[in-house]
C-alpha cells in the first residue's frame, strides 16, 4: 500500500524529532557568582544550538567546591581562582586533561556615588568610609575577597582597614550592598561593576598588587562527561568568546 507523501514527510519529521530528543542531554554547571550574567547568555545560546539543557548553579567558588566534594551532582565546574580547582584536582574530582584557564578579570574599587579616589598606599580608605564599612566577599575563602585582601596587604593598608570590612558570601552580595547604598564602598570584579548601573567604578587595583585573576574550568569526574565535554568545547568557541567579551571578561592570560 502506498503511503501518502504528506504522511511520509510527517513520519520522517517525527523520527528526526525523536532522534534529536534522544541525543539531547542535560548539563549541570557550578559557576562562580561573578559569571552570572555572561553564563546565562552563553547557556541560552548553547541550548538553542545544541538542544541540550544547561542548568547553572552560581555561588562562591569555595562553597561550590565544597558541595562537589560532598557529592553534589555537578558536571562542570568554573572557579574564580585556581586554588579551589586545585583542591578538587588533588581530591581526584575532576577529569584529567579537561582543566584549562577560561577567562581573566580585573579587581576594582566601587562606590555608591561618584567620587575621586585613587588607589595607592596613600589612600585613606578608613576616612573615605566615614564610619561605615567596605563590602567584600569573604577574604579567606571567596576568590574576590582573597584577591582584594592580597591587594590591600600589598598596598600596606589592610591592617587598619580590616575592622571596617563587611564580608559577604560571594562577590555579587558585596556588589548588592553597594548598589543598595548599604555600604559606601566595595571591592569587586570589573565585570560585576559593569553589570550594575547603580554602582560606580572609582579605580582599578594595580595588576601586580594581587595574584592574576583566572577562571579555570574542568569536567567533574562524577558528572555526565560526554555532555560536559560538548559544553566545554562551546565555552572555548568564538561564539562564547563574543559573549564573554561583551561582559568585560578577558581571555585567560590577557587581563582587561
Keywords:
256 residues; alpha/beta; D-Maltodextrin-Binding Protein, domain 2; 2 domains; five-stranded mixed sheet; elongated
SSE topology:
Blueprint (H helix, E strand, L loop, with lengths): L4 H19 L2 E7 L3 H15 L2 E7 L1 H9 L6 E3 L3 H9 L9 E5 L2 E5 L13 H5 L4 E4 L5 H12 L3 H4 L3 E4 L2 H9 L5 E5 H5 L5 E5 L9 E6 L5 H11 L2 H9 L3 E2 L5
Parallel strand pairs: 1-2, 1-3, 6-7, 6-8
Antiparallel strand pairs: 3-10, 4-10, 4-11, 5-8, 5-9
Helix pairs in contact: 2-11, 3-4
Could you please describe the fold and organization of this structure?
With 256 residues, the chain is of the alpha/beta class. It has two domains: 25-104 and 214-251, Periplasmic binding protein-like II (D-Maltodextrin-Binding Protein, domain 2, 3-Layer(aba) Sandwich), CATH 3.40.190.10; 107-209, 3-Layer(aba) Sandwich (D-Maltodextrin-Binding Protein, domain 2), CATH 3.40.190.10. Helices cover 42% and strands 21% of the residues. It has helices at residues 5-23, 36-50, 61-69, 82-90, 125-129, 143-154, 158-161, 171-179, 190-194, 225-235, 238-246; strands at 26-32, 53-59, 76-78, 100-104, 107-111, 134-137, 165-168, 185-189, 200-204, 214-219, 250-251. Helix 2 (36-50) links the parallel strand 1 and strand 2. Helix 2 runs antiparallel to helix 11 (238-246) and helix 3 runs parallel beside helix 4.
Amino acid at each position: 500500500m502506498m503511503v501518502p507523501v504528506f504522511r511520509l514527510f510527517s513520519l520522517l519529521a517525527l523520527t528526526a524529532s525523536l532522534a534529536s530528543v534522544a541525543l539531547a542531554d542535560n548539563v549541570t554547571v557550578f559557576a562562580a557568582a561573578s559569571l552570572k550574567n555572561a553564563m546565562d547568555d552563553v547557556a541560552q545560546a548553547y541550548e538553542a544550538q545544541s538542544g541540550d539543557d544547561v542548568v547553572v548553579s552560581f555561588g562562591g567558588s569555595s562553597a561550590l567546591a565544597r558541595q562537589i566534594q560532598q557529592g553534589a551532582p555537578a558536571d562542570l565546574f568554573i572557579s574564580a581562582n585556581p586554588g579551589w580547582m586545585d583542591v578538587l584536582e588533588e581530591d581526584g574530582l575532576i577529569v584529567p586533561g579537561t582543566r584549562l584557564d577560561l577567562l581573566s578579570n580585573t579587581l576594582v574599587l566601587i562606590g555608591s556615588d561618584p567620587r575621586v579616589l585613587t588607589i595607592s598606599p596613600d589612600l585613606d580608605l578608613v576616612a573615605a568610609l566615614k564610619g561605615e564599612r567596605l563590602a567584600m566577599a569573604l577574604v579567606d575563602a571567596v576568590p574576590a575577597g582573597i584577591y582584594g585582601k592580597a591587594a590591600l596587604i600589598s598596598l600596606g593598608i589592610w591592617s587598619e582597614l580590616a575592622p571596617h570590612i563587611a564580608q559577604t558570601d560571594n562577590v555579587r552580595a558585596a556588589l548588592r550592598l553597594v548598589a543598595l547604598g548599604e555600604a559606601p564602598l566595595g571591592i569587586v570584579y570589573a565585570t560585576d561593576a559593569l553589570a550594575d548601573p547603580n554602582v560606580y567604578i572609582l579605580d582599578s587595583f594595580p595588576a601586580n598588587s594581587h595574584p592574576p585573576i583566572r577562571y579555570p574550568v574542568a569536567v567533574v569526574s562524577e558528572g555526565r562527561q560526554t555532555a560536559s565535554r560538548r559544553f566545554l568545547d562551546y565555552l572555548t568557541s568564538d561564539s562564547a568568546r563574543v559573549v564573554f567579551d561583551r561582559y568585560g571578561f578577558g581571555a585567560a592570560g590577557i587581563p582587561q
